[in-house]
Amino acid sequence: MSFKTQALTATLAGAMCLATAAQADREDWPDNFTVGTASQGGTYFVYGSGWANLIADELGVSGGGEVTGGPNQNLALVHTGELALGLTTMGPAAEALAGESPLAPGVKMDNVCALFPMYETPFSITTLADSGIESISDIPDGASIGFGPAASTSDTYFPAILEELGVDFERRNGGWSDLGGQLQDGLIDVIAFAAGIPIPAVSQLEVQTDVNIIEFTEEEQQKVLEAFPVSPFQIPASTYQTLEEDARAVSMWNFTIAGCDLPEDFVYEITKLSMENNDRMRDIHRSAEFSVPENLKYNTVLPFHPGAVRWYEENGYDIPEDLKLD
């Protein structure tokens, strides 16, 4: 056998081994997957559905996004294995891991692992311009306020935040698009959003009518920072046509999540795809500008999935030992 023939044979054998290994790696992959998002009209739905499509297209696994009640429900559905992937916020994640989820009190949701950071969720307030409400203190007693889907991050934290600030209100729930319609029709007075910006429902509202986007005063912001697991935030003026300058707010970080028992190679490929293609992630939603590995430090709650840990460590990012599965 000539040297060229030997080399060709070795190359073909190596290629066959790689193909066999790749096939073996995929044998335990799920046939399909679903990403838990939130209600239509919110950022979670746009981000999660687009991310699901990216995974399906690039990894060749059938999948898509699903409308849910948001972070709390996504945590519960991923924990039980009813959903493979989901989106959540760090406040609800901490409560779920401690067995304090409002959906399942006493159940420690320890089959939920973090994948990568998404973006910060600002807490913001929108009213119609003709309501006369230009500040939080202007909200009249008994005002009807929409807080998003029941048990969502907004519904979990925003009522308590407004109570802390002395607002008396009547609580309403619903999807963001539906609440936007109710605000425009005069059926509710205020919407208290906790969602990534720009919020599709707000962008749609300000095209159709004049709105006020209400910011926190410095004193209100400080009072909320002292009472809740949130961070200071500025909504950039460029986010909405209505804003003439940055608006003071508070925020909470969001992460993608997966069942801890999902195959390591599957999750590794999802993490690799998501972290190495930020331009494509930004095409899904511009808030993905912050979906970069440098922001993984904002998860101090959930363990990272072993597949995600492998990608991070291969690329020079350290994961604290207490955030790795035993």
Description:
With 326 residues, this protein is an alpha/beta fold. It has two domains: 32-119 and 254-323, Periplasmic binding protein-like II (D-Maltodextrin-Binding Protein, domain 2); 121-252, 3-Layer(aba) Sandwich (D-Maltodextrin-Binding Protein, domain 2). The protein is 39% helix and 21% strand. The protein is built from eleven helices and ten strands. It has helices spanning 3-26, 43-59, 71-80, 90-97, 153-164, 176-184, 200-208, 218-227, 264-275, 278-284, 306-314, and strands spanning 32-36, 62-66, 85-89, 112-128, 143-146, 169-172, 190-194, 211-214, 231-235, 247-259. Strands 1, 2, 3, 4, 5, 6, 7, 8, 9 and 10 form a ten-stranded mixed β-sheet that branches. Strand 5 (143-146), helix 5 (153-164) and strand 6 (169-172) form a beta-alpha-beta unit. Helix 2 (43-59) packs across helix 9 (264-275). The longest helix is centred in the first third of the chain and has 24 residues, at 3-26. The protein starts with a helix and ends in a 12-residue tail after the last helix. The model is unreliable at 7-24 (pLDDT under 50). Keywords: Receptor, Signal. InterPro entries: TRAP_TAXI. This is TRAP transporter solute receptor, TAXI family. Pfam families: NMT1_3 (PF16868). Residues 1-24 form the signal peptide.
